[in-house]
Design brief:
The chain is an alpha/beta fold. It has 5 helices and 3 strands. Strand 2, helix 4 and strand 3 form a beta-alpha-beta unit. This is Trans-aconitate 2-methyltransferase.
Amino acid sequence: MSKKLIYSDYDIFASIYNKHWGHYAEHSYLLLEKLILQYAPPHSHILNLCCGTGHLTKKLIENHFVVTGIDGSAQMIEYARQNAPDAAFIVDDARYFNMLSLLAIA
């Protein structure tokens, strides 16, 4: 994880995003399934970078994937934890995210 103090402009409209836009992410699952997920065995671990409010994360979990979501907005992550309680979530800035730090957490 980055050691920078994270402030996200997305915090301001996280509730609006969750209510009106987050569900769009569920539709992207169908495209991901055709392009990538059909080749992943069940229970594969997926890193959902910039996971937003967790709607895609929820869909991935429903389809037997293990998911870690990362987003720079603490408010988005709060909604993500409500929408997909079986996932792990990290507040971090994707621009500075270090994959090795995720391995240390696991």
